[in-house]
Design brief:
52% helix; single chain; Rossmann fold; globular; seven-stranded parallel sheet; alpha/beta; 271 residues; 13% strand
């Protein structure tokens, strides 16, 4: 049976992907940072749910070791864990930027770096990297998150070149708006790390906070991501990149088509 390790399964895309794959006869090893979420996953029937904070190399090693003890192989690794930190760049401290990168980039890289030797040894594998539509285009007040996803894009594009000639496939997911707690959690991060009341961008921030309750154009359910992950698992040689949601297709297309100045005009309205 094909197996997969998924990071960040406490809620949203990670959780829904884990459930969908389990229902489709994939052996899932879901992981979560909080022990309470690990227990929740076990209560849902995930016998091999494990604790994993991607910022902690020892926990990454422990998960890999455990899965190899059970199955002797790791077919797919899905780097899904991540969060968004909103805020204008001039109001985001370097420490906050580092915090964003610790999970979205450095944690992802450490997981990737540790799983590649396993896959080289067994002669095959797939590494799914969860990027974003914001790894393709930039929006106002999303610079910290944008930077982290642009970094994921660069790391993965390079990794693909370095793994050429092997049966190890790095795959990027450019996901647009989907149903999850991502936006709610992002607003909490905004409140924690930005002085909204005294900000030059107070009006824009408050508008973003109010927008949580509004319908997002082209928004899809998390199952959209799960179905693509399932497709990747079943595909012998998956594509290097998958767009998810109409928003990603639209914005990815206009970036290729328009000049930078015209694109900026459109993205200013989108943001």
């Amino acid at each position: 049976m094909t197996n997969i390790i998924i990071t960040g399964c406490s809620t949203g895309i990670g959780l829904e992907t884990a459930k969908y794959l389990k229902d489709n006869f994939i052996k899932v090893y879901p992981t979560a940072r909080d022990p309470k979420d690990v227990e929740m996953l076990k209560e849902l029937g995930f016998t091999y749910a494990m604790q994993l904070d991607v910022r902690k190399p020892d926990e990454i090693t422990a998960v890999i070791t455990k899965v190899l003890e059970i199955d002797g192989k790791i077919d797919v690794w899905f780097n899904n864990a991540g969060f968004g930190q909103p805020g204008a760049m001039e109001e985001i401290t370097t420490e906050v930027l580092k915090e964003q990168f610790e999970t979205n980039v450095f944690g992802l890289h450490e997981c990737t770096r540790k799983i590649i030797p396993v896959m080289r040894e067994q002669g095959y594998g797939k590494i799914i990297q969860h990027s974003s539509v914001l790894g393709l285009i930039s929006l106002f007040g999303r610079g910290t998150y944008n930077a982290s996803k642009y970094a994921v894009e660069g790391l993965t594009d390079t990794l693909r070149l370095e793994l050429k000639g092997t049966e190890i496939y790095p795959v990027l997911l450019n996901t647009g708006p989907v149903t999850s707690d991502f936006r709610k959690n992002a607003v909490q991060k905004l409140k924690e790390n930005v002085d909204i009341e005294n900000s030059l961008f107070k009006e824009q921030y408050l508008k973003s906070i109010e927008g949580i309750a509004k319908k997002v154009p082209f928004k899809e359910e998390a199952i959209s991501v799960a179905q693509i992950v399932h497709t990747i698992i079943l595909t012998e040689r998956p594509k290097p990149r998958y767009y998810i949601t109409k928003a990603t297709y639209l914005l990815g297309y206009i970036k290729r088509l328009l000049s930078t100045s015209l694109l900026d005009k459109i993205l200013t309205k989108v943001g």
